[in-house]
């Protein structure tokens, strides 16, 4: 046990580190052992386990359920996992389990009602991917503004110099300096994006009715006002019943002609059909998306028809090595608090 964990009330604990190919079980195990003197069993789950809906309805990850049950059967008290399906079946089969820590921003792979009924603490790892997602968002924005992926494809994949046509007044992109950029949402990711864009010299505007205090940029009182004034909008709101479909046909029509839309937050914030309609009409000049209403993006999605103006990536915003390391460290710190019988920092049950 490291010096920060020394306590007369500390106890040994038996842990399953159920990682995958992103948050490696070895990362989790080393982080937990740094915080405690735990006996850690490493388990690599199949990847990816997603997509799944509410965890109580999981069918796709049934094999992973079996693997979790087998790993936890030896009276393991703690489970640390990235995407393992912590279902009623898993919880009922593992009576010794007392703590589950999910290495994600929310425990979407846990049946919280079942956990409460079994008196199991459920924790998560907020903030682990805020920096990575903010950086990726800015990358998407620059790629869309300057047609970087399209020019790359023409030259690197097709051997064509035709991308030089972007070096004309009509087809050249926009630069960030003095560009009005509207951010919808100002949480951990949106606030980081704002700071970066301000450094570029963009005229940053923010709409977030739930955030108060100092911000980087100009705070606007209404979403409509932000849309009317923005050449680029970037979505950073949480997905709730209130924000689902937040940007639809009416909202896109408020943007000035030639505007650009960026979404690396949650796919359902944006009406994709309305986006495609606006691109088809020429009202929008470009878009950059990392998240979608349906994932994986269906082969028949209308978005594929706009490859010359749309940047599409497969939900990679939070994919950096640092994110995996941060997630393991946040989760391990929670296990350390539990072992030392200290209050848990990110507990939902």
Supply the helix-strand structural class. Answer: alpha/beta
The proportion of strand residues reads: 15-25%
N-to-C SSE string, H for helix and E for strand: EHEHEHEHEHHEHEEHEHEHEEH
Structural shape: elongated
The number of strands is 12
The end-to-end span amounts to: 27 Å
**Biggest β-sheet: strands ordered side by side in the sheet:** 8-7-6-9-10-11-12
Q: What is the share of helical residues? A: 25-40%
Gyration radius, rounded: 23 Å
Overview of this protein structure:
The protein is elongated. The protein has 11 helices and 12 strands. Mean pLDDT is 92; it is low at 1-9 and 51-60. Helix 5 (130-146) packs across helix 7 (188-200). It is of the alpha/beta class. It has helices at residues 25-35, 62-72, 88-93, 112-117, 130-146, 148-157, 188-200, 223-229, 249-254, 272-281, 321-339, and strands at 14-19, 39-44, 78-81, 99-102, 121-123, 180-184, 203-207, 218-219, 232-235, 259-263, 284-289, 310-312. Helices cover 33% and strands 15% of the residues.
């Amino acid at each position: 046990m490291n010096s920060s964990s020394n306590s007369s009330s500390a106890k040994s604990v038996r842990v399953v580190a159920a990682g995958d190919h992103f948050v490696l079980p070895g990362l989790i195990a080393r982080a937990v052992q740094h915080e405690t003197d735990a006996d850690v069993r490493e388990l690599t789950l199949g990847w990816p386990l997603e997509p799944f809906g509410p965890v109580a309805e999981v069918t796709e990850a049934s094999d992973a359920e079996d693997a979790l049950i087998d790993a936890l059967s030896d009276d393991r008290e703690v489970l640390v996992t990235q995407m393992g399906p912590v279902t009623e079946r898993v919880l009922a089969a593992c009576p010794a389990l007392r703590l589950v820590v999910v290495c994600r921003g929310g425990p979407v792979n846990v049946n919280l009602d079942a956990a409460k009924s079994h008196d199991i603490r459920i924790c998560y790892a907020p903030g682990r991917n805020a920096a990575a997602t903010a950086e990726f968002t800015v990358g998407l924005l620059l790629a869309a503004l300057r047609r970087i992926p399209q020019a790359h494809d023409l030259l690197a994949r097709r051997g064509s110099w035709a991308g030089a046509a972007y070096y004309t007044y009509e087809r050249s992109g926009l630069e960030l300096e003095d560009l009005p950029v509207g951010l919808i949402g100002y949480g951990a990711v949106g606030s980081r994006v704002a700071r970066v864009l301000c450094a570029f010299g963009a005229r940053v505007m923010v709409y977030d009715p739930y955030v108060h205090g100092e911000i980087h940029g100009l705070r606007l009182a209404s979403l409509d006002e932000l849309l009317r004034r923005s050449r680029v909008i970037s979505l950073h709101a949480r997905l709730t019943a209130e924000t689902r479909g937040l940007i639809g046909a009416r909202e896109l029509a408020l943007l000035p002609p030639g505007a650009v839309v960026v979404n690396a937050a949650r796919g359902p914030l944006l009406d994709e059909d309305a986006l495609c309609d606006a691109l088809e009409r020429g009202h929008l000049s470009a878009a950059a998306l990392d998240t979608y209403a349906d994932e994986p993006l269906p082969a028949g999605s209308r978005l594929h028809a706009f490859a010359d103006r749309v940047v599409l990536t497969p939900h990679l915003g939070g994919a950096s090595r640092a994110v995996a390391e941060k997630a393991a460290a946040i989760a391990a710190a929670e296990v350390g608090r539990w072992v030392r019988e200290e209050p848990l920092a990110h507990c939902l049950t």
